[in-house]
Amino acid sequence: MTFALTLFAACLLDASLGEPRRYHPLVGFGRWASAVERWLHADNRWAGIVAWAVAVLPAVVLLWSVRRVVPFPVTCAIDVLVLYFALGRRSLGEHARPVADALDEGDLTTARLAVGRMVSRDTEVLDASQVAAAATESVLENGHDAVFGALFWFVLLGAPGALLFRLANTLDAMWGYRTPRYGRFGSAAARIDDVLGFVPARLTAFTYASLGHFVTAWRCWRTQAPIWDSPNAGPVMAAGAGALRTQLGGAAPYHGQWEERPILGEGDAPDAQTIRRALRLVDRGTIAWLVVASLGGMAAHA
Q: Could you tell me which pathway this protein works in (predicted)?
């Protein structure tokens, strides 16, 4: 019962408060990681491994140690707060809904600006369908990164697991690029994030498929995910696009050049309603995960 209440309390905090506007722990971690990078950066993989360990492990070990010595009520409070900080479901809606609203109003300029806060591509050259596709892709992928992945590792290893996943995911977003600076140094951050996300990404894909058009989602997952460049984003976005019966992926502009990407999903071109349906898909998935995790936790302690 305590486990179930912890899950629901953390999700309720996220739904009610969203991400902290000031003093967000992940913002502080980002600054710490940037400092570690300045101290330890070198153009080799070993430097990246050491930097990853220095950036991530102290916080995880400290959390694990504190939970072992504080009273049980304090442990519960810590668990709720850590999971709350690891979740970002409300933030998804706060970023995605302005894109959908602007598209509904025919205001492509505002829609481009809004989706630019969600993705790294050159949004100023996107048409309305491409804007909707970018926002939908972000919602589906971040459903895994900011919701289901954190829940999975919390269920498996408690608050330290959720913290480990979220910090590793943040470092991948900071260092996991194939650029001259990060190609070797950031490879450890990218690979560790891939490993930690492997199982929850596939559970996320199954969640999307189960709560949408299952046959289409399964077909897209099986045939399209293997050719996507990310081993975890591929299943998540292919299954999500199939579940929504929409077409995502395709060419996208980065740093002034259009890059060819595989097509994901099948069906109609995305629009404002596709973004909203993706958000509802994540919402339904979150409820399903909470129910299953809570029942499993209670059964394990029966």
A: Cofactor biosynthesis; adenosylcobalamin biosynthesis
